[in-house]
Specification:
Elements lengths: L1 H24 L27 E7 L16 H10 L4 E3 L5 E3 L4 E6 L7 E6 L13 H11 L9 H4 L1 E7 L4 E6 L16 H4 L5 H4 L12 E7 L4 E6 L12 E6 L2 H10 L4 E4 L3 H8 L5 E16 L9 H9 L3 H9 L36 H10 L3 E3 L2 E4 L2 E2 L1 E6 L4 H16 L3 E5 L3 H8 L17 E7 L4 H9 L3 E2 L6 E2 L12 H9 L4 H15 L2 E14 L24 E2 L6
Parallel strand pairs: 1-10, 1-11, 16-17, 16-18
Antiparallel strand pairs: 1-22, 2-3, 4-5, 5-7, 6-7, 8-9, 9-10, 11-21, 12-18, 12-21, 13-14, 14-15, 19-20
Helix pairs in contact: 9-11, 10-12, 14-15, 15-16
Length: 582
């Protein structure tokens, strides 16, 4: 073999020399000897990487405070961010029923052989926060500890029935034990919070969620948060263990309604959420077929509270006189501006109009739509008041009612001012105050007597509020109308409701509905007439928003139940947009 190679090499060399000489004598190029494997040069510039897919969503307002469990922070943006980043044990199914969130949990079930009513939650091993920490039983513990003890929280009743939350299997199992059976347990542990970042942080429960969430357990995470510019940029959470989001980025931008509509028309905004009045609806319909509109009822009802623990309103006859002085339809028109919420008037004390099982419970007679000056006079006279000098006076003091509405809650402020004007027309003096949400719900309408003196000293007679509803109507009933309970750890009394209402004759019925001993419908048939008779709250309407979506964005739809459109944000497919530093 070695010799063969020595003979061949000279022949090849002679051949190469011959070809070279021939090439020099002719114009024809020599044939290639070996096919090249290197890329041929090209004059085309290299292709640019694809631009990230972006969905820009416009919102009416963007203010600090995004704790989804706090009354003061209720807003459509809070709902949106919570759906995007805070995982829940159960989520609304296609028909609105609660179904297991299989992305977060392997299982959640009642432990049959436990001595007390016990639920075991098995958390998926891969489930974790965007900072790398696992989602664990400590997150269940943290939410339980806060919602059973903090004032001004949403639907705390189920958490107050829990006696213990244990961490097992390295934190990936939470074992929850209740003092009593609780059939509404699937409504608990919504929007878990990252306990490892919050439990020992300065400001704690009250202040740490003013600018979003320190970590995400959903398909998106906060990249930038700029209240001054009115913009929140959400990026795809690369640590998310579930299906990755279809879009790279979602941008929430605040602008005036007219600007948002213009941006929808031009395509600079692809999704809009509006607290729409009649004029806004006309403008949205004018966008034509390029924009699809959907009305989304929110899980809150705008309500006027008449607080019986107020010295001025302690007499039910005075409360009834106040209601007789009001034009209810005018209050609804003022709050809704003739928008979609005007089609959701509330005529029940617990359920909201869009909820399954809702039926009007309001009795005829006392609750008339039009004011009745004659009835006002009769009731105030029976309560010991005399009409003198253009006001109603008792024991030398005029009837002067303080009406509260949350600061910068425009519709509620407008309703409060309208209530004041209508009462003034009946010579009932009024003062309107607009405290910040934390002050109103945590102090003035406190459910915790440790925060300050009992609520009767807070000086609020009436309040225009958003009352939340729950997928567990019995828990809503107890949260809004239950009597004070005793904290088993401290022995101190807690209030369940911001009205200051308690009827010891109704309390056994409310508790029986909460624990499943009595069906909610039967309990409601007894409780609702008593609430209307006591004149402690005037439901006005269920709040609603309008979702506007341009055709070029796919996957955007209103979620089942009260989940809202952002529950499906992982499926949104946006249009290519300008790149941020990723």
């Amino acid at each position: 073999m070695y010799r063969t190679r020595r003979r061949v090499l000279p022949v090849v060399s002679l051949l190469l020399v011959s070809l070279t000489v021939l090439a020099g004598c002719t114009n024809a190029p020599p044939p290639p000897l070996v096919e090249s494997t290197s890329p041929s040069p090209s004059s085309e510039p290299p292709s640019e990487p694809p631009k990230p897919k972006v969905v820009v969503a416009s919102v009416d307002e963007l203010r600090g405070g995004f704790n989804p469990h706090v009354l003061a922070d209720q807003s459509p943006v809070t709902d949106a961010l919570a759906e995007l980043m805070l995982p829940s044990a159960f989520v609304p199914g296609k028909n609105g029923e609660r179904v297991l969130n299989e992305t977060l949990l392997e299982s959640a079930e009642v432990v049959e052989d436990a001595e007390k009513f016990t639920v075991r939650y098995r958390i998926r091993t891969a489930a974790g926060w965007s900072d790398g920490a696992p989602i664990a039983a400590e997150d269940f513990v943290y939410l339980w500890e806060q919602l059973r003890s903090q004032p001004g929280v949403i639907n705390p009743v189920g958490y107050r029935l829990i006696s213990n939350v244990e961490s097992r299997q390295g934190g990936k199992t939470a074992r929850v034990t209740f003092d009593k059976p609780y059939p509404g347990w699937k409504s608990l542990f919504d929007h878990l919070l990252p306990a490892h970042l919050l439990k020992d942080a300065p400001g704690g429960w009250v202040d740490n969620l003013d600018y979003g969430y320190p970590a995400s357990g959903g398909p998106f995470a906060i990249r930038t948060f700029d209240l001054d510019r009115g913009e929140v940029v959400l990026m795809r959470n690369e640590r998310y263990w579930g299906d990755p989001a279809q879009s790279n980025r979602i941008v929430l931008r605040k602008a005036a309604r007219a600007e948002n509509i213009t941006a929808l028309r031009s395509g600079n905004v692809q999704v809009g959420m509006f607290s729409a009045d009649a004029a806004t609806m006309d403008a949205l319909r004018g966008l034509g077929e390029d924009v699809q509109l959907t009305t989304m009822p929110r899980p809150v009802s705008s309500t006027l509270l008449l607080r019986p623990n107020s010295p001025q309103l302690g007499d039910v006859r005075v409360r009834r006189a106040v209601l007789a002085a009001l034009d209810r339809q005018e209050l609804i028109d003022t709050g809704t501006g003739g928008g979609p919420a005007a089609n959701l008037p509330a005529h029940a004390q617990v359920l909201a109009p869009s909820q399954p099982g809702y039926v009007p419970t309001e009795p005829s007679g006392d609750y008339t739509e039009d004011p009745s000056p004659k009835r006002v006079e009769q009731l105030l006279t029976k309560a010991g008041y005399q009409h003198s000098g253009g006001s109603w006076v008792r024991n030398g003091s005029p009837l002067n009612l303080v009406i509260a509405a949350q600061f910068r809650e425009d519709s509620h402020e407008a309703i409060a001012n309208s209530v004041a004007e209508q009462l003034n027309e009946q010579d009932i003096q009024t003062t309107v105050v607009t405290p910040k949400g934390d002050e109103l719900y945590r102090t003035m309408l406190t459910t915790d007597p440790d925060v300050q003196d009992p609520p009767s000293s807070a000086g609020i007679d009436l309040a225009v509020v958003s009352r939340p509803v729950s997928t567990d109507p019995a828990a809503t009933l107890a949260a809004q109308w239950g009597c004070p309970a005793v904290d088993p750890d401290t022995g101190r009394t807690r209030r369940f409701n911001m009205v200051g209402f308690c009827d010891q004759l109704l309390q056994p019925t409310i508790e029986a509905a909460t624990t499943g001993e009595a069906p909610f419908r039967r309990a409601s048939e007894r409780v609702e007439p008593a609430l209307w008779s006591e004149a402690v709250a005037l439901p006005l309407y269920q709040e609603a928003q309008v979702l506007a979506v341009r055709r070029e964005v796919s996957g955007v739809h209103d979620g089942p139940g009260f989940a809202g459109p952002f529950s499906s944000a992982g499926e949104w497919v946006g249009t290519p947009g300008e790149s941020y530093d990723w």
